[in-house]
Amino acid sequence: MLLGSVLQSAAFLYAIASAPAVRAVFDCNAIVDGRQLNLTSLAGDHSVKVIRSTPPSTTTMTWNINLCAPLTINDQMAVSMQCPAGTQVCGIQTVAIEGQNPAIITQVIPVSGDLNGSTAQDEAHSLSDTNTAQSGQAAVHVRLTGGMWGEVNEMETDIDFVCDTALTEVTHDADGNTIGLQVLSWDEKSLHLQWNTSAVCGEQLVGVQQSTTSTAWNVVKYILIAALLILVAYFGITAYLNYRRGATGVDLLPSSQAIVDIPYVARDFAKKVGSGFSTNSNRDGYAVF
After folding, report:
1. Which residue has better confidence, 2 or 196?
2. Integer Cα distance of 150 and 186 in angstroms
3. In 10 A of CB 159, how many CB atoms?
């Protein structure tokens, strides 16, 4: 019973220590395929409308997106009439009938973001040689995930960023549409957008040397995890054996001398394993009977 509890604690500590870091939202200042991607110029809430004639009404789907942060919550609007907090891409459909005001909201679709405590797993990669991306050429692809709507789960938004040297800043037309942002497709699970911007043109992306800091930290982290598990296992097994011998309280713990001897025991064990490999390597591939 005691050993089982110790092993469960060790597994829990391992899960915490080895869990990868997650981002709350997409990093607009990320390194993509070895180059610095800076999309902070596109930060903020943006939208694009798709209008369809659906006699006797007109149906408007407004796609709202904030690439670098969750969309702003409208305090003047009912919670049920907008996407939940943490949404980065949200579609709101309205239906209007001529002579009748206001338009009716018929759909609210949170396509991507951190919703209901689940963290989106976003990704980005180059679509071309970003050193030479010219105007009109797709340069970077970003996928935002995490959306849920009704019975539909695992929704996603795919965004193709196209180099456009003329669009050096974000502007909007008279209807509030973000210039350069357009909808390519929507199938009630996946939204595909295209965003023309100068932020992904070749001269805007600078090659960076990949840092070895994260790799070195991963090595250190796994060494520490291994040491922690070994230490927990040692204390647990020793406590269990002492318990079987009738010990109680602090007597369950290893003696101070045993703790001091741990490094020497580990050293002798490593030497023994090493000499075993050395002996085996001199057998020229033949087994000894």
Report:
1. 196
2. 16
3. 24
pLDDT, one tens digit per residue, over 55-75 is: 999 999 999 999 999 999 988
Q: Name which of 185, 187, 142, 191 is nearest 162 in CA terms.
A: 142
Q: Which range among 79-88, 196-205, 247-256 shows the weakest confidence by mean pLDDT?
A: 247-256
Measured distance CA(114)–CA(52) in Å, rounded: 30
Residue 135, both tokens: 């105007």
Q: pTM value? A: 0.63
What token pair was written down for 64?
């709202």
In terms of DSSP bridges, do strands 87-97 and 100-113 run parallel, antiparallel, or are they unpaired?
Answer: antiparallel
User: Can you tell me the distance from the alpha carbon of 133 to that of 289, in angstroms, rounded to the nearest whole number?
Assistant: 67
Cα–Cα dist 160/27, whole Å: 16
Checking if the pLDDT of 239 tops 90, the result is: no
Dihedral over alpha carbons 183, 184, 185, 189 (to 10 degrees): -70
- Peptide bond connecting 110 to the previous residue in cis, omega within 30 degrees of 0: no
Q: Whole-angstrom Cα distance, residue 162 to residue 137? A: 5
